[in-house]
Write a sequence for this structure.
């Protein structure tokens, strides 16, 4: 504990959000330290795995608006690092035609003039083979959507951050944060000081925020990441132009079910349930509930006849949910030089570049590029020891 290095900013947590924030800070000539508790890369948070869906299809305009710029930022990173991070596949959105959620998806796409196609019951199977569209369901395709290569994206942005002079220290768990005009951060290996700190600790956010007398209404759930085997290899393959898909609600459940074409594991299609069971992030594998897998099995038997309704591979990941499923992007209510990015509620990966930009703006005291009112802490009337 002999070091006491000084930085402009310390970012805690090297998942997708912390890595993009650190990169943006370094781009803005800030001397930046990115601290990560595990050896990188790791599979214990929320950002690991090979793929994520990127889409403009949302129920709320503010996400669709942010995604406009976000696509450009992903492309910019691809160019800077000469690497491919995005593959366009389209996103098929299905749901009960008369339901509020399906209609919101559809109208947001239309209102924002996102390139899209509406499928009819008659032409559905011609465009989307091997999928049964449920009675009463509508279907639209967000043409702009696709796959992000997640692990590769993380490696790329961390590499670009280092090229800009940023410092990553992994296997260094932050044990304490002492707020003040200069914030002191103690890790398992050193003591650091900075003008500002950004907390992007994913499922561990509340554990870290304890040191600053703040608790947010976050719930951490374990997601069973399931891969399903094709009966005929290639039927749902990305090369056959099978799209990503999202079912807003169905016979089996009110929560979303989403999937990606077979790609990373040959012959296996990733299909997940957009909810899981509560867990402590340090005890993730003790959560063994499989009721989500039962729901997926029933759905796959009913609507995806080309897949064996038994998962071939099950991996683990975590969501950090807020009550309204919108992110937290804000200053700490008591300490303006502590910035928080949390509660990405299972849909934050695609926003990484724009979240990085926004958290960087907040930590530099700049006016954020977007209206952050949906993401402010005050919406929770959070229970804090110090009054909000
Ligand atoms: C199965 C699954 C599918 C998903 N699909 C999509 C999708 O298709 N599209 C999409 O946009 N989003 C998707 N998401 C959501 C997206 O992946 C997350 O919103 C995003 O990864 C959250 O990133 P994060 O940086 O906040 O958290 P994390 O990736 O968990 O990063 C937090 C980091 O902080 C570190 N940390 C914590 N405490 C400390 C400490 N004390 N000291 C040092 N380091 C610490 C952790 O080790 C971790 O590395 C999915 C998520 C899951 C789980």
């Amino acid at each position: 504990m002999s070091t006491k290095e000084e930085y402009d900013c310390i970012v805690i947590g090297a998942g997708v959000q912390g890595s993009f924030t650190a990169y943006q800070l370094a781009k803005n000539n800030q001397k930046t330290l990115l601290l990560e508790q595990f050896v990188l890369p790791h599979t214990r948070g929320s950002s690991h795995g090979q793929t994520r869906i990127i889409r403009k299809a949302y129920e709320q305009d503010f996400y669709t608006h942010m995604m406009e710029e976000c696509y450009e930022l992903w492309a910019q990173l691809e160019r800077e690092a000469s690497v491919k991070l995005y593959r366009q596949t389209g996103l098929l959105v299905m749901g009960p035609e008369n339901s509020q959620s399906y209609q919101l998806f559809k109208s947001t796409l239309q209102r924002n003039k996102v390139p899209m196609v509406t499928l009819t019951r008659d032409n559905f199977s011609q465009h989307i083979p091997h999928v049964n569209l449920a009675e009463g369901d509508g279907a639209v395709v967000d043409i702009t959507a696709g796959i992000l290569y997640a692990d590769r994206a993380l490696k790329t942005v961390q590499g670009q951050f280092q090229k800009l002079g940023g410092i990553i220290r992994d296997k260094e768990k932050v044990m304490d944060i002492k707020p003040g005009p200069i914030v002191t951060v103690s890790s398992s290996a050193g003591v650091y000081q900075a003008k500002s700190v950004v907390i992007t600790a994913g499922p561990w956010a509340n554990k870290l925020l304890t040191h600053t007398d703040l608790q947010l209404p976050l719930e951490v759930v374990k997601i069973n990441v399931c891969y399903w085997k094709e009966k005929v290899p290639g039927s749902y393959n990305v090369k056959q132009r099978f799209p990503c898909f999202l079912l807003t609600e169905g016979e089996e459940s009110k929560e979303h079910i989403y999937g990606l074409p077979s790609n990373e594991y040959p012959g296996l299609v990733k299909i997940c349930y957009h909810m899981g069971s509560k867990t402590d992030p340090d005890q993730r594998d003790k959560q063994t509930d499989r009721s989500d897998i039962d729901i997926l099995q029933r759905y796959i038997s009913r609507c995806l006849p080309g897949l064996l309704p038994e998962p071939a591979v099950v991996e683990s990941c975590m969501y950090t949910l807020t009550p309204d499923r919108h992110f937290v992007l804000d200053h700490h209510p008591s300490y303006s030089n502590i910035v928080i990015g949390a509660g990405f509620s299972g849909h934050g990966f695609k926003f990484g570049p724009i979240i990085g930009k926004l958290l960087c703006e907040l930590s530099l005291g700049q006016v954020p590029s977007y209206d952050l009112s949906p993401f402010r802490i005050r919406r929770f009337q959070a229970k804090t020891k110090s009054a909000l």
Confidence is low (pLDDT under 50) at residues 382-388. The CA atoms of residues 229 and 268 lie 5 Å apart. DSSP finds eight helices and 20 strands in the chain.
